[in-house]
Amino acid sequence: MPVKTYIEAVREGLRDEMARDPSVVVLGEDIGVQGGVFRATDGLLAAFGEERVIDTPLAESAIVGVAIGMGLNDLRPVAEIQFADFIHSALDQLMSEAAKMRYRSNGGWHCPLVVRVPYGAGVHGGLYHSQSVEALLCHTPGLKVVAPATPYDAKGLLVAAIRDDDPVVFLEHKKAYRLARGEVPEGEYTVPIGSAVVRRQGRHLTVISYGLMLHYVLEAAERLGREGVEAEVVDLRTLAPLDEATVLASVRKTGKALIVHEDNLTLGLGAEVAARIAQMGFEDLDAPVTRMAAPDVPAMPYAPPMEEFCLPDAARIEAAMRQLAAY
Q1: pLDDT of res. 260
Q2: Which entry of 129, 173, 204, 215 is annotated as an active-site residue?
């Protein structure tokens, strides 16, 4: 299979679905003529025209609101929020309208909608270009939230999200766009929403992660493996709904669990994963469930040394894994 970057896989998924299904439209700020600030939609305007590749005003609430209307009228919109930090003005549309569409209609209406959201730090974006917003979104029943870490999953999950009849928030880590590379099939395929995957087999501890952090976890696990400490690495891929079965099966095997994510520690996704392990896997545990995440700072600092201090990296993850393995 050809090797592609993460951003190339996203672009390929969009292009393939637009070619297959004329009801798929994309909309967002600078996604047409410019091809997106990260070039995720580069070439789509020339291929599909301005009726299906729509440059919007700088108004996130309008982008999501218009996309909801499209979804209610037999289209399959893919809306881009240029940075996760800008999504907050659209949360009323997303959380109060899209997420509740099936419930409020007693199952009579559905709202196919994908909201692509570049998120995360590590690119020196500073205050308004570095946030992680997954905990807020995962708290909203009715929204599916996915965060692929690899190019293969980025394309497969994006295709699955576009074909889903309910709203899906598709989180794309900005630093992974050109850092993550991997084999991506040319043909049509999907990755099921709601399914985690074991990326590395192990027997001494389980490490659970997603997005960019998964790559750092795998790097740390390889280092420890050379010393005889075998970490099993679980990639959540989908954050809502969580694949409890895969997580619990791994913890049952190893007896120890570490959850690593980039978002703030307090009330981050790791807290929910830890709570479920404690509730449903308590008798399998040989040590307390532990978490590694960013400190509870109001926003990601701009200065590179401070940004590096706030973000978990492979060295600190390795230290946390070593400590848990020795418990």
Answers
A1: 98
A2: 129
